[in-house]
Design brief:
Blueprint lengths: L12 E9 L4 H12 L5 E9 L2 H8 L6 E2 L9 H12 L3 E5 L1 H12 L5 E6 L9 H10 L2 E4 L2 H11 L6 E3 L13 H11 L7 E5 L8 H13 L5 E5 L5 H8 L5 E5 L4 H4 L5 E4 L8 H8 L4 E4 L4 H4 L6 E4 L4 H12 L2 H18 L2 H19 L8
Parallel strand pairs: 1-2, 1-4, 2-3, 4-5, 5-6, 6-7, 8-9, 8-11, 9-10, 11-12, 12-13
Length: about 375
Amino acid sequence: MDTGGDVRVNGPAKVLLLMDSLRLGGAQRLAMDIVRYADRARYEVTVCGIQSGDAFQGDLGRWGVRPIDLRAGRLDVRVPISVDRLLREERYDIIHAHLFQARVIAALLRRIGRAPRLLAHVHTRPARGIWRRWDGMSLRTADRVVFVSGWTEEAHTSLHRLDRAKGEVIHNGVDTSVFKPDPDARRAVRQQLGVEEETPLIAYVGRLAHVKGVDVLLEAMVLLAQTGSDARLVLLGSGPLREELERQADGIPGVRFLGQRDEVQCLLPAFDCVCVPSRMETLGLAALEAMACGVPVVATAVGGLPEVVQDGSTGLLVAPEDPEALAAAIARLLGDEDLRREFAEKGRQAVLSSFRIEQTVEQIERVWDEMMVEARPEPVEAP
C-alpha cells in the first residue's frame, strides 16, 4: 500500500513522532514539548519508540499521551515490519523521525512507498564508519529535514550533498516559565548544599561521558584551587564515566557529584556559573537552560554552542580541551559581579527572544503545514 499520497481532509492531521528510544534524552524532551504545545485542533500527535524507556513514558503521561513501545533492539530486523504494520493500521499523514535508527527505518519504508511524507529531524553530528551511507540515505530520502543548529545543517549537508532547499534550522527551545531566575530557590538550594551565599558555586549539567569534557573541567578546578579560589563544583548527571571521574576528582576540594536530578530547573538558580566544557555539542541545551535561569555560562566554542552563547555578550567561550583557558574564563566570571549580572540579563533576554520552546513548536508546525499542502494532489481543471 502506497500511503505517500494520502491526505486527510477531515479532522486533525495525524503525525507520528518516531524515536530511537523512549529513554529520556534531548530528542525525547523535544518530543514531549511537541506533544504539550502542538495545536491539537490541527494535529493529532503520537509518539512511538523503537527501544523501551520507562522514564520518558511516565513524562508523556502527564500530557495524556500513551506512547507506543515497540520493545525492539538497536539492530532488530523486525523493526521495519513493526513500523510498517503501525503505519498501515493508523494511516498517519506525516512521520516525524528523530535520531539515526528511526530516520533510517522511516526512509527505507518511504523509498518503497510504504510510508507517508517524511520529516527527518537531525539532533546529532553525522554518523561515522559503515553507518555514514545510511545516514545520508535517510536525509536524501526525507521530504523535509530539520537541523537543531546551523553547525549541524552544514556538517550533514556538505558531507551527504543534500538539497539545501528542503532543509532548515529550527533550534531547540526552553520552557521559560519553568527555567527562570528564582532568588528563593537560590537560597534554599545553597542551604541544602551547605554553601554560603558568598561562596562561588559552579555547575555542570549533563551526561558523564568523554564527549562532554568533564575531565577537562576537573583539571580546570585543580588550577583554580591552586590560585587560592574557594569555588565549588557540583556535577548534575550520570553516565559511563562517573566512577572514573570520581576517582579523578578525589582530592580536588569542593567537588560534589549529585547524580541525575529531575528538578534541574529548581537547582540552576543557586549557581554563579554553569560550565559546558564539551568536546562536541550540536546545540547546547544545558547552556540555554542556564541562561533562561539567569545564570552566566562558560562554554567551549564547538559545534552549535556559539549559536547559543555569544562570547563576551551572554557568556564566555574558550577552546575545547584547554583547562588553562577554561580556568581563566571561570575565574574572570567569578571575580566580576557586574559581568555576571550583565551576562545573566542578556542571556535570559536572548532565550526569551530566540529560544523559547513555543517558538520551536510553532516552527515545526509550520513545516508540518507546508508538508500537508505539498502532499495535496493538484486540482483537476474542468474540460
